[in-house]
Specification:
Helix content is 12%, strand content 29%. By secondary structure, it is an alpha/beta fold. It has two domains: 76-146, no CATH class; 151-308, 24 nucleotide stem-loop, u2 snrnp hairpin iv. U2 a', Chain A (Alpha-Beta Horseshoe).
């Protein structure tokens, strides 16, 4: 009887061992015993590339932010390149700081306490350097425009029907594309950081001049049509221009391109009843004519004759 009991125990053990299911042998059994393998209830597996594999989806796993002493702490502020925010200057006045290409805000750029137009820069209130250039004052005696020291190139076709829409390009230092201003646009001082622009079209705005584009040096096309309040077209730093078209602007009286040396394509200035033809001739003499064609007529009659070719 004792031998029979032992035999039954051995057979029972053998049946349990041979039951279909998960079989663990060798290292697998050892890892399970050590608690190093999770079969049920495990979370996503994190790979060496910092992503978490959860089946058909991949979710980025952000590492904990570190403070300056190398320990985990609160995340550092990040920003979108080109945006600006107010900051407090040492004297208590309000300055401006801009988001740099590093994704951090630069130092606070403050108005000069002496009124000389030169900027003052406070300590590191929001980033790792990257001072800003405070350029010419905008019309009306408002605070000078502060621009990022590091170029911020932009591209695209942008249409702006009102002043708030200008925020999209306010920190661009160049725009490879076109900018169309229309509707109730009346203040373009926020465009004071642009130095290079592909095309500028102004249609029926409330602008009286273009002084907000104080840094613009290169422009492919300047086209202004039916701007009822525009009395002066002047871009004091513009050196190169491709095409100039001014049509149907009843209040336009003056052209002022003091730095312009070349118009490489065409000039068409027509239907501006307050603009003397001699203003156009003086501009053409300044740049040595246009590369392709010139037409100015139906402007204010004076001693200078209309001309088209």
């Amino acid at each position: 009887m004792a031998g029979t009991s032992v035999r039954r125990d051995l057979e029972g053990t053998r049946r349990e061992r041979d039951t279909p299911g998960i079989q663990l042998v060798g290292w697998g059994a050892m890892l399970v015993r050590a608690g190093l393998v999770c079969i049920v209830g495990c979370g996503p597996v994190v790979g060496t590339d910092g992503t978490a594999d959860i089946g058909d989806q991949t979710t980025e796993v952000s590492p904990p932010a570190s403070s300056s002493d190398g320990t985990a702490g609160e995340s550092q502020p990040t920003c979108t390149v080109g945006i600006s925010q107010e900051c407090i200057c040492p004297a208590g006045s309000t300055g401006t700081q801009f988001c740099l290409p590093t994704g951090e805000f630069g130092s606070c750029s403050c108005p000069s306490p002496t009124g000389t137009g030169e900027p003052g820069t406070s300590g590191s209130t929001g980033g790792n350097g990257g001072s800003t250039d405070m350029g010419e004052s905008s019309p009306g005696g408002s605070q000078p425009i502060a621009c990022p020291e590091t170029p911020v190139p932009c591209s695209g076709k942008i249409a702006v029907p009102s002043d708030p829409g200008l925020v999209d390009v306010s920190m661009c230092t160049s725009l490879d594309g076109s900018l169309t201003l229309s509707g109730t646009v009346s203040d373009i001082s926020s465009l004071g950081c642009l130095t290079v622009l592909g095309e500028l079209r102004i249609e029926s705005t409330q602008l009286t001049d273009l002084s907000g584009l104080s840094r613009l040096e290169e422009l492919g096309t300047l086209e202004i049509e039916a701007a009822p309040e525009l009395s002066r077209v002047g871009l004091s730093h513009l050196e190169q221009l491709g095409r100039l078209t001014l049509t149907g602007n009843p209040a336009l009286e003056q052209l002022d391109f003091t730095s312009l040396t070349e118009i490489s394509w065409t000039v068409e200035i027509t239907g501006n009843p307050s603009l003397p033809h001699c203003e156009v001739e003086e501009l053409l003499e300044q740049v040595g004519g246009a590369g392709s064609g010139v037409c100015y007529e139906a402007n204010e009659s004076d001693e200078c004759r209309p001309f088209c070719r």
